[in-house]
Amino acid sequence: MSTQSFIQSISLRRLAAIAAWLVVAFIVFATIVPIGLRPRVAMGVAGYERFFAYALAAALLAVAYPNRALRIGIIIISLAVMLEIVQLVEPGRHARVMDAVVKASGTCVGLAIAYALNWRPSRSGNSA
User: Fold this and answer.
1) What is the pTM of this model?
2) For 108-121, how does the pLDDT look when each residue is reduced to its tens digit (9 = 90+)?
């Protein structure tokens, strides 16, 4: 791996990390605010919003932190479950098992996409 490609790889990971944590922060915000303040994307079915948000977060985290897909999956799915539980105490919000399943599915798809696109450098430092 040349020095320039190494620097580009680090820059890509740094940008992915910033974007990933911004997406995670947005997910937390959108989940815990009162329902009237929750941002909505006009996609029809609300499950798509959840699915794509978690897929994007997982994919970006996989780019930012290569070779940690299992850990990322566990953390993001745990976050989804915890945020569903938090909704039990928020008036007007409902915790649903199906919402957690949609979020977990999005997480898995995001990780799979990042892996399939080979954004995960191998342990030797060479991209495979």
Assistant:
1) 0.80
2) 999 999 988 864 45
Q: Note whether 31 and 87 are within 8 A (CB).
A: yes
Q: Which domain holds residue 29?
A: 3-116
Inter-residue contact 102 to 47 (CB < 8 Å): yes
Q: Which residues of 89-120 are buried (b: 16+ CB within 10 A; e: fewer)?
A: eeeebeeeeebbebbbbbbbbbbeebeeeebb
How many domains are there within the chain? 1
Residue 9 resides in a domain: yes
The model's pLDDT over 25-47, given as tens digits with 9 standing for 90+, comes to 999 998 888 777 776 766 566 66
DSSP 120: S
CB 66 within 8 Å of CB 119:
yes
